[in-house]
């Protein structure tokens, strides 16, 4: 409790998030007699020693290279042609792009950071507000957490002893629903706040679409190749990140001939700053994660839930509200690692399908990353786009409501999530 | 602090967890609540190597660790993970009760601050999990088999004919599904927990390695206890290890039935060719002399046992 | 100082390229049936160093994420003062990391990194080294801010 107050206080006076986490975590090690402070340093280092985490720098770098290699521009112009005629133009393009690339990236943070780089400025020049653009980029990263492959779901399946294959398939429909929900919300928000955008261009002809598809075939092939290599062979998600870097480089150098040695070095240097910021937060979160686990905070909270009620739907909603709260305070993968082993038994005892719960948990934990006070995806995007947090929040809340609505719907009607895996298995 | 935090990478479904619960209950009742034990599953406080390091630094933690992980501190303990070392649980008990073993344990405590509470936690024999039938080392030629990324394991899998491929345990399921790897090797309870039966078709019962763990914790914490408390902890650790191993044996029978029901082909090949090819591991790792010593020790115990009947 | 900074930046670039290369080659070699056992472990060793060195780079070229709701509304002079205070606080925290990072580095030389025979302490070392570099950066920033403040006070 003291730790939490200290953390919030430091955060409020403008200390960088990573250092707020560090000080809060260290304060516990200093006060606990049986915990040597060197253990805190160990936790800091240990956070970097996770193979799935390598996907983060890879996809950040791949995003930078794609910026310089012409891949992104072509994907954007294709998405543009597909959905730009709808009111909201580039905002829809961002969401469609998220769905396209979500099947590639396993990390919502990496996805958000990448898209902030790629689409941040174009969205603003097209007349959408800075906060609105940042909100769209961040929240559409939720799609990444759902659509397979998702590192979060792999971790959940492993820790919670749940079929990873079923989890993957269960993520597809929610991913599509999220895409549609966000596009609908954009549609209404744009009508309200940016009426000049609502005019739209003409709908594209099929011939136009085909021509554009051919023009950007290497770019379109990119997510397809990645999905295929991950799903049917060759790569684990982290390795796919390394592959994404290499592929983006090859396409940029030899196919589109837009990438130069100098711009490659520039992409590397730009990536370093993003990586430094995100990694220091993740490393520091490791120290806090240890304290949270050591205090068995999740255990007592989960116990409180099961003491309160045994009504499945109530337990599910309580768990989700709890996860929403924790998700606002902690990093997503950390939560999955810490809370899955505690919450899965709780929901299973009242008869909730762990597949159903896993997908909802993934969405809501990632959702926490898009909200204050410790939304890492939010901070990454706002930092890259230089968008003040309050401007972001005031544009983001309609999307918060829409996503919450969808999550509630999926919580009340499990078959939305479960029918596809049940059909296939 | 009179609290001991016990950490395992396993989940609550694993029989080892039941053993840890027994350890907790016995320590807490026997010490009349003056000692308390908290159990953390799923490596919540760090992986096994991290936990050993924390124990060395003096944190009040203990972890279920295998011999290979301790070998960097006390080289001889590495042999506990070597192929075809002991035949059964009885032989394991003879080994860990021997003066040879307590010599290693003492050295580990004085030199590195790591205390072995008990080393009789048997998690089962490791078998081959493949997509095709296997009857001899030759069948493993060119097969990318996931194993643990430590020298003993890599050498063993290599000697048995497959290509050792270290991969995080969390990635084994998807790795098999996506054919990133062709095969894996695990004990029954481990493969059951990770649902590997969904992505493999054949289990070959080679039993090439007996997966043995010890409950290892901070020597500093242990020394902070009174003599009678130390006895309570040690006795509880030994009994809990025995209990957990018994649970594993019961569990394995059930798992084998369930595997058959799911259509997994289970084969019991002649293990002699695997044994022969695995011998080279001892030579490569410099355990050849120690291996002979242990075999003599086990033989003597066997003879003594026979003559008493 | 400028020199250290530029070397560090190029080192970060090299580390990032090396990590991509190691993981990519590992995947390719495994597909071909010749898994490189050590490559992922080495990649993770380099990754820890990249994270700490890049964290220092972020101080130079960008900004570490922070909440600005309160500080944005502050009078510029007070804001500068607050930022100086925060820099001092960060230096203290980093000092703690250096001290105990060195302790950890000394404590466990036997532990090895994954399947390699590389000592794990070379991973651990990235914390004290990275923290020292960040302290240098922050100290430089602090003295610069201090020097700039004096003429402003004269106005
Ligand atoms: Na996005
Ligand atoms: Na994804």
TrEMBL record, chain A:
Domain TRAP C4-dicarboxylate transport system permease DctM subunit: 5-416
Entry's localization field: Cell inner membrane
Alphabetical UniProt keywords: Cell inner membrane, Cell membrane, Membrane, Transmembrane, Transmembrane helix, Transport
Role played: Part of the tripartite ATP-independent periplasmic (TRAP) transport system.
Protein name: TRAP transporter large permease protein
GO cellular component, one term: plasma membrane
Topological relation to the membrane, as annotated: Multi-pass membrane protein
Family as reported in the entry's similarity comment: Belongs to the TRAP transporter large permease family.
Transmembrane segments: 48-66, 78-97, 132-158, 164-188, 216-234, 240-256, 277-294, 314-347, 359-379, 399-420
Self-association and partners: The complex comprises the extracytoplasmic solute receptor protein and the two transmembrane proteins.
Keyword Membrane included in the entry's annotation: yes
One Gene Ontology term of the molecular function aspect: transmembrane transporter activity
Pfam families noted in UniProt: DctM (PF06808)
From TrEMBL, chain C:
Coiled coil feature spans: none
GO terms classed as biological process: C4-dicarboxylate transport
Membrane topology: Multi-pass membrane protein
Domain Tripartite ATP-independent periplasmic transporters DctQ component, residue spans: 19-145
InterPro entries: DctQ, TRAP_DctQ
Gene Ontology cellular component list: plasma membrane
Signal peptide (UniProt feature, chain positions): none
Alphabetically ordered keywords of this record: Cell inner membrane, Cell membrane, Membrane, Transmembrane, Transmembrane helix, Transport
MF terms (GO), sorted A to Z: transmembrane transporter activity
Chief localisation class: membrane
Membrane-spanning segments: 12-30, 36-55, 81-102, 122-139
Cellular compartments annotated: Cell inner membrane
PANTHER family: 2,3-DIKETO-L-GULONATE TRAP TRANSPORTER SMALL PERMEASE PROTEIN YIAM (PTHR35011)
Entry similarity comment: Belongs to the TRAP transporter small permease family.
Role of this protein: Part of the tripartite ATP-independent periplasmic (TRAP) transport system.
Complex formation: The complex comprises the extracytoplasmic solute receptor protein and the two transmembrane proteins.
Protein name stated in the entry: TRAP transporter small permease protein
Natural source organism: Salinimonas iocasae
The organism's taxonomic lineage, starting at the top: Bacteria, Pseudomonadati, Pseudomonadota, Gammaproteobacteria, Alteromonadales
């Amino acid at each position: 409790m003291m730790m939490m107050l200290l953390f919030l206080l430091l955060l409020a006076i403008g200390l960088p998030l990573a250092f707020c986490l560090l000080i809060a975590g260290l304060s516990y090690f200093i006060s606990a007699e049986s915990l040597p402070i060197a253990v805190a340093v160990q936790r800091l280092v240990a956070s970097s020693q996770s193979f799935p985490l390598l996907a983060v720098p890879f996809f950040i770098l791949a995003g930078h290279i794609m910026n310089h290699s012409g891949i992104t521009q072509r994907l954007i112009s294709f998405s543009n042609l597909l959905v730009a005629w709808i009111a909201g133009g580039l905002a829809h393009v961002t969401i469609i792009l998220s769905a396209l690339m979500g099947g590639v990236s396993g990390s919502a943070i990496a996805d958000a950071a990448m898209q902030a780089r790629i689409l941040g400025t174009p969205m603003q020049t097209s007349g959408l507000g800075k906060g609105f653009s940042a909100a769209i980029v961040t929240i559409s990263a939720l799609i990444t957490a759902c659509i397979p492959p998702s590192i979060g779901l792999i971790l959940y399946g492993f820790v919670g002893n749940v079929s990873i294959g079923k989890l993957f398939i269960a993520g597809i429909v929610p991913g599509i629903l999220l895409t549609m929900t966000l596009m609908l919300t954009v549609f209404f928000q744009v009508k309200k706040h940016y009426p000049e955008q609502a005019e739209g261009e003409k709908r594209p002809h099929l011939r136009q679409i085909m021509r554009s598809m051919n023009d950007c075939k290497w770019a379109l092939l990119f997510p397809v190749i990645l999905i295929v290599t991950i799903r049917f062979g060759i790569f684990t998600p982290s390795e796919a990140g390394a592959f994404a870097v290499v592929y983006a480089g090859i396409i940029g150098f030899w196919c589109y001939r837009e990438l130069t040695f100098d711009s490659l070095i520039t992409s590397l240097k730009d990536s370093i700053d993003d990586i430094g910021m995100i990694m220091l937060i993740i490393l520091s979160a490791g120290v806090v994660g240890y304290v949270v686990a050591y205090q068995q905070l999740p255990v007592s909270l989960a116990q409180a839930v099961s003491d309160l009620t045994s009504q499945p739907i109530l337990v599910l909603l309580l768990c989700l509200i709890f996860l929403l709260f924790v998700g606002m305070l902690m990093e997503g993968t950390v939560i999955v690692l810490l809370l899955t082993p505690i919450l899965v038994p709780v929901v299973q005892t009242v008869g909730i399908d762990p597949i159903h719960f896993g997908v909802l948990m993934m969405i809501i934990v990632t959702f926490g990353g898009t909200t204050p006070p410790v939304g890492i995806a939010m901070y990454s995007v706002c930092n890259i786009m230089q968008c003040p947090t309050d401007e972001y929040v005031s544009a983001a809340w309609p999307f918060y409501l829409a996503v919450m609505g969808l999550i509630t719907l999926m919580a009340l009607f499990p078959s939305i999530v479960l029918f596809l895996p049940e059909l296939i298995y | 602090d009179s609290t001991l935090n016990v950490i395992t990478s396993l989940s609550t479904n694993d029989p080892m967890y039941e053993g840890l619960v027994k350890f907790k209950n016995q320590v807490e009742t026997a010490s009349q609540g003056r000692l308390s034990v908290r159990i953390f599953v799923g490596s919540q406080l760090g992986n096994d190597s991290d936990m050993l390091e924390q124990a060395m630094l003096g944190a009040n933690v203990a972890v279920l660790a295998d011999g290979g992980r301790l070998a960097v501190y006390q080289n001889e303990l590495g042999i506990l993970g070597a192929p075809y070392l002991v035949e059964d649980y009885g032989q394991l008990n003879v080994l860990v009760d021997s003066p040879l073993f307590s010599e290693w344990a003492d050295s580990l405590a004085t030199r590195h601050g790591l205390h072995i509470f008990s080393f009789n936690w048997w998690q089962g024999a490791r078998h081959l999990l493949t997509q095709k039938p296997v009857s001899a080392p030759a069948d493993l030629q060119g097969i990318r088999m996931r194993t643990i990324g430590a020298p003993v394991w890599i050498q063993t899998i290599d000697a048995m004919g497959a290509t050792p491929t270290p991969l995080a345990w969390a990635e084994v399921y998807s790795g098999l599904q996506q054919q990133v790897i062709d095969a894996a090797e695990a004990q029954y309870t481990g493969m059951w927990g990770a649902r590997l039966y969904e992505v493999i078709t054949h289990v070959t019962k080679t039993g090439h390695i007996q997966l043995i763990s010890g409950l290892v914790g901070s020597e500093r914490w242990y020394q902070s206890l009174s003599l009678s408390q130390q006895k309570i902890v040690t006795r509880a650790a030994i009994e809990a290890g025995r209990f957990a191993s018994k649970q594993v044996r019961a569990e394995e029978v059930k798992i084998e039935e369930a595997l058959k029901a799911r259509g997994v082909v289970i084969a019991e090949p002649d293990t002699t060719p695997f044994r022969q090819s695995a011998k080279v591991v001892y030579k490569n790792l410099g355990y050849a002399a120690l291996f002979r010593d242990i075999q003599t020790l086990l033989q003597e115990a066997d003879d003594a046992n026979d003559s008493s009947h | 100082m400028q020199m250290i900074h530029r070397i560090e930046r190029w080192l970060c670039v090299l580390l990032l390229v090396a990590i991509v290369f190691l993981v990519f080659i590992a995947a390719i070699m495994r597909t071909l049936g010749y898994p490189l056992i050590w490559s992922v472990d080495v990649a993770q060793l380099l990754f820890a160093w990249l994270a700490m060195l890049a964290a220092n780079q972020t101080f130079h070229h960008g900004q570490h994420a922070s909440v600005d709701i309160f500080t944005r509304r502050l009078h510029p002079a007070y804001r500068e003062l607050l930022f100086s205070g925060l820099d001092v606080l960060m230096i203290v925290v980093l000092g703690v990391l250096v001290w105990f990072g060195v302790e950890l580095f000394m404590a466990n030389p036997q532990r090895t990194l994954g399947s390699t025979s590389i000592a794990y302490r070379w991973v651990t070392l990235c914390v004290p080294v990275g923290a020292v570099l960040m302290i240098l950066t922050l100290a430089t920033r602090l003295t610069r801010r201090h020097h700039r403040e004096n003429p402003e006070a004269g106005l």
